[in-house]
# Entry
Amino acid sequence: MTETPSNYPAKLRGAGDWFVSWALSPTNLLIVASLIIGLLAGSLAILAGGFDPVVAFSALIQGAFGSSQSVLRTIDKAVPLVFTGLAALIAFKGGAFNLGVEGQMIVGALAGAIAGAYITGIPGPIHLVLVFLVTILAGGSFALVPAMLKVRFGVNEIISTIMLNYVAVWGTSYLVNGPFKAPGYVPQTLPVAPAINLNRVFILPGVNFSLLVAILCVGLTLFLMKRTRFGYELNAVGINRTAAGVAGISVNRTTYLVFFISGALGGIAGILQVLVVHGRYIQGFSPGYGFDGVAVALVGQLNPVGVAFGALLFGALRSGGMQLDRVTDIPVDFSIFLQGVVILVIATPGIISFLFRRRRATR
Amino acid sequence: MTSFIEMKGITKLYPGVRANNAIDFDIGEGEIHALLGENGAGKTTLMQILYGLVAPTEGSISVGGKPVEFRSPADAIAAGISLVQQHFSLVGVYSVVENVLLAREPSRYGVLYDRPAAKKIVQGLCQKYNLHLDIDSPVKELSVGDQQKVELLKAFYRGAKVLILDEPTAVLTPQQVDDLYVTMREFRESGNSIVFITHKLKECLTVSDRVSVLQAGSLVQTLRAADTDAAQLARMMVGRDLAEMTPRRAKALTDQVLLSARNLRVNGDNSLEAVRGVSLELRKGEILGVAGVQGNGQIELAEALAGVRPIVAGELLINGKRFNALDRKGFIAAGVGYVPENRHRDAWLGEASIEDNLILGYQDRFTRYQVLMKDRIGKYARRLVEEYDIRLSALSAPGRSLSGGNQQKAVMSRIMSQSLDILIACQPTRGLDISATEFVRSKLVEARDAGMAVLIVSYDLDEIKEMSDRIAVIYEGQIVDNRPFSEFSEKDIGLQMAGASRV
# Structure
């Protein structure tokens, strides 16, 4: 036996070794293999459509990473997915499916936007903190509804979270078309106070405030999952509820917290769109960030850092897709198709490991 | 006797472990062949290779003289080999009949499920192999012993010629074990063969024709059961002479009651009353053995005493403080340790690291300001692994990578290593091999001598007799007798367990 097991304590090796073995770990090889399969399938589709794959992919890459402007656009598209991806991840890890991140996001965003527009006369920084608090409370509380239904009445959260998305969409639609409608034709709120409009706040040239919050949240989630007792208990509940209960962990309390955090993260995704991008809540601002979060979490192999990369990949496909539309005749749907293939092959690692196993057995 | 299956030079390497080392193993026609060895000796791996679950690193297999290569269990089943694993693979909501015939149902006109024919087939199999079962009831409502029968029926129905049983007696009561022997012999009489994986010497001498002993991945010897005895087998299995274990009783029983239950009533999973008015006292520095046939409420009683099952009526005092609510955390804080009967289900996280598993239930003690103290946890885990000889590839490996016996050891180790006042242990040595059993028992005695109050629930009367300072006999949810060990005669206990005499 000369090979080193991949889970060998990292301390005993140099940092370089650690990186190599991490990079070559089965999980990562799996992701790379999935990407290659996705690219191949994409190429076939382009060929079948009578286009040139090389042209398509170079446009896609150009659009995603070709210039500093496109890199910024990619980041902008990726950031909301980081939050919704983390939201889905926390729920998965805690043994629950939260398919209601979309709803929690718009509820949190609207509540925060209202607080941002209607509260006046307090200093900007305090106002900003307050807006975030309102967002977190609103998004988190809205997620407590399915948690309560699950804990108290045993309602399957997959169904309740999906259905509550409709409640969120039409509930916010009522508010933003009724009591909180700004004058004009568009269903939107009044703009938030200028002091908390973060449109022009950059942490680096061209890089806005959201990225900072996203990186912060990835770090916090990682710390929460790996280092805290709550993360430990959440993991235990997610893996084996019975054993967690026997170990003195309150399964119900953990479930509530998991949903609250998940919904709060969704809310943060939304309020950053409000504060940084639009300056106000606009109905239909989300092209489905909440729904994509589930896919991002799976592509990220349920690891917070993986979620960041997954979000970046999705962001790249989106901003690259725009370039594709602009400079080639290839329809933009192609990048969406590619997204779908990547989700399928990465999020179902079973397929690939099955293929590998078969090959090994044949050898 | 001709060999039906021959395995030659089987070697299996896992990262860091040589699970099987050039093993030659053969199965004759019409024989029961016991595969004996301690936890982690390589018994299960060898059989997983035969069943096509695991590919050998080296070696060859032939069936009926022809070389074969099994790529999956489907190939093995087609060759007439069936495996009954320790963890069953049954569909809980399906009936016995449906489980047995699953995916191979008899049909009418090729599409319609032929219910009467299905029932007849299963009834026939039950009769042939002397299995008594309610074949219409959903499998999840059956006892573990009956579920095992369903697994056997599945194998019979698939036309198994060679049946591999992986520690089949670990989950059975003595009576059920006897029934299993009858079925096994019946199967052999029809010219079939059985590989019987076990680490219990008595069993393999009782029922098998030949015995192969594995130790640390290598075959020690294959011999005829008639030519050997328990002492010789034990020596081969452990690789050394075993000291005769003499029971060590508590020096003197104290009067300091740590746990007292009065008129406890507890419901079982089916909402029927399982514990019907139990009163008992558990004293400092004593081991109380709860003797009884499986299913008489002892598990529900233990669960209630440990705070994982609600108490319907009655009073439970721990250290003089009243405990009633379902509050496992409070029980843990009060120093009540609990070893559940089904460790795999109630005490193990398959997808979490072994390190994480070793602190489960005691994570509070490794937390400061809500943050886990990773260094302390690592040190603690390494100590447990060494002290209890838990065989693993790495502490960061997932819990499911541990073999069954090692999972048991890990669970015992983490509970026994905490400073506890009271320990409620269900089947503390279930699934453990000789050395580990010896070790756990000596740990229990040690803890008792240090002042712990220990309650052991066991279906194994030998274990109760060997360990207990005091014995409580439970029958149909009631304690029918409770006296110091010295005042019992063996006959008493047996009769009371069967419900013959009520006091």
